[in-house]
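Q: What would this chain look like folded?
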Amino acid sequence: MFRPKVPTMPQPTGPVAPPAVVEPNIITPGTPAPPPAPVAPVPPRSAVRLTPGTALALVGGGTAVVLVVGAVLVSLLLAVALTATSVAVCAVVIRSVLTRR
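A: My prediction, written as structure tokens:
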């Protein structure tokens, strides 16, 4: 039950063909490709025009994004600072307990 069983190598079934001989290909120079057809020029796109309302919306959206990202980063920094402070306080308490014994 606990002895490993080594799988047997399967034997090929049916006739086995000898490997085919691969002949090297001869590269012959081809005819040159015709020049590409001229492409019609694309008319330039008109510039995007911002109205005062859309500009104000863009500024407001950007400000909101900056404030949200800043709040998240500050909260992460505060969490790290609180964790470090609590670990330091625990280390001081444990050290003082161990030195009294």
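DSSP finds one helix and no strands in the chain.
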